[in-house]
Hints:
This protein has 42 residues and is mainly α.
Amino acid sequence: MGVDQPYINGLLSKVIDAIDRMNLAEIVDCKTEILKIGSDNY
């Protein structure tokens, strides 16, 4: 099973935007990294 990276990036962007709009915390900068972990890495 593969990871749809553009979909995940878009979803994370929406979550970060929602947090920013709620004014619960000031988001100055944001960086995301997707790590693929599976048995094929060993």
